[in-house]
Amino acid sequence: MKFSRLIIQVLLVIAVITSIVLSFFIWTNTARYQRGRNIDVTTSTQNKNEVPINQVISPTSVIWRKDSSQHLIYNSNENIALSIQKIMQDWKIDSPKLVSQKDGAYYQKTIQSKNVLQLVYPSQTSTSILGYLLDNNSLRNDKSYSFNRILINLKDKEDKNIYLANDKNYTIYRAPVKNATSAPIKKLVNKANINLKIRLDIMKHGVFTIFTEPIKLNTYSYVISSKDDGEYTTALFDSNTSGLVTSEDNGVYTYNYGESKRLVSDHNSGELTFDDYTDTSVPKTKLAFLQRGYQKVTNLQNSISNLRLYSADWDKKSLIFREYVEGFPIFKKSEFGSIRIKFSRKGSTEHFLNKVLEVPVPSDQQPTKLKSTTDILKGLDKVGYSINDIQKIEVGYQWESEVDNEKVVDLKPTYYVKIDDHWKPYSDWTNDTAEDK
């Protein structure tokens, strides 16, 4: 009996030591040990080259109206938008035809229709890009139309179409569909574990998603990764760093390779800017524009599984990418999101942050309850901002570094508001909290 008790005690000691060792490696070696919970679409073990372009450029919101109200839905274990996009690859979608344009009343009625599911892109895209992402030649080779919503009727069997809607000019197109069934999409909708009541309203600056009731969202924590400047210079200067000229001023390091390339790394903010004066060919089509942008982000970051195209300005040839969690964008301490890329005849410029989400870790913080959007708008009006001043308003995650662990960041939900072309959290505009007490 004494011998057996001794064996048990020894095994317990071994188990405790093993647990401590594993915990140490999880926190110090993010490349080797990964948490199993799938926060967005893919786990962080996925190699960046395995993240396809149709994941980085994809819808980020799914809206469903079954009865009297609309709901923003999401599944923490399976990204509904990407799953539907994959289903659509098997559909035969013909060339779209114009249904209506510049009719705000008809447009609002359409995007509020019953039994309609919507895939919403954060920025304008085009039918040619959709054709490329779905491998659909009818769309890819057709005249390119701009849109940011795909509408699918899940109940009317007689309506064998999808609808493409453009919030910018209230235009709607109808595209006939064959080989399609709503059954797998309905199955995905029924699996949603985030279901938030909303209303879509047309305002001066576009269509706003209004949360009609207070909403409760989880707070997340992530281990983040960063690189030394040498890793960036190796990747961005084509591994030829022997001719680099380096200078430093108050923590801002500048690396020049002749007069052709320059990297500026601000160690105080973690922001970097790369100018390539040899890259003077401006993409001629929207598809080429996005393909070039995708190539650049894969060259910058080790992990892009959470990265999504957030904004595309075709006229200024500028792209903005943000990281997403649970279908909501992350706002970092910068004006440009995670990565901003700009093309011009004088060369290309890339702004980016040296902090990337890698591994989700358990958070001991309670879910955050936010006010309804109506209450947020009232709060802005109270301090002097009318609804016409607000260019955009959306729920996003605020990036907050932990004081006692610089490798861990907390992501806390709040409202972000864009006024005068600047994104700020609601609290910065009003000196009030967005949380519902």
The total count of strands amounts to 26
> Main β-sheet, in a few words?
14 strands, mixed
* Gyration radius from CA atoms, angstroms: 24 Å
Helical coverage, percent range: 10-25%
Q: Tally the helices.
A: 11
Mean pLDDT: 87
Organism: Companilactobacillus suantsaicola
Protein name: Regulatory protein YycH domain-containing protein
Domain Regulatory protein YycH: 10-428
Transmembrane segments: 6-27
Explain how this protein is built.
- By secondary structure, this protein is of the alpha+beta class.
- Among the domains are: 1-33; 48-210, no CATH class.
- It contains 11 helices and 26 strands.
Feature tags:
disordered N terminus, alpha+beta, transmembrane helix, Regulatory protein YycH domain-containing protein, 437 residues, 11 helices, YycH, 14-stranded mixed β-sheet, membrane, globular, ten-stranded antiparallel β-sheet, transmembrane
Helix and strand layout, with pairings?
Elements: H1 2-28, H2 53-56, E1 61-65, E2 70-74, H3 80-88, E3 92-93, E4 97-100, H4 104-111, E5 116-126, H5 127-134, H6 137-140, E6 146-153, E7 161-166, E8 171-178, H7 183-190, E9 194-203, E10 206-211, E11 215-217, E12 220-225, H8 229-236, E13 245-249, E14 252-257, E15 261-266, E16 271-276, H9 286-300, E17 307-313, E18 318-325, E19 328-331, E20 339-342, E21 348-353, E22 356-361, E23 368-370, H10 373-382, E24 390-401, E25 408-419, E26 422-425, H11 426-430
Parallel strand pairs: 19-24
Antiparallel strand pairs: 1-2, 1-5, 2-9, 3-8, 4-8, 5-6, 6-7, 7-8, 9-10, 11-23, 12-22, 12-25, 13-14, 14-15, 15-16, 16-21, 17-18, 18-19, 18-20, 20-21, 24-25, 25-26
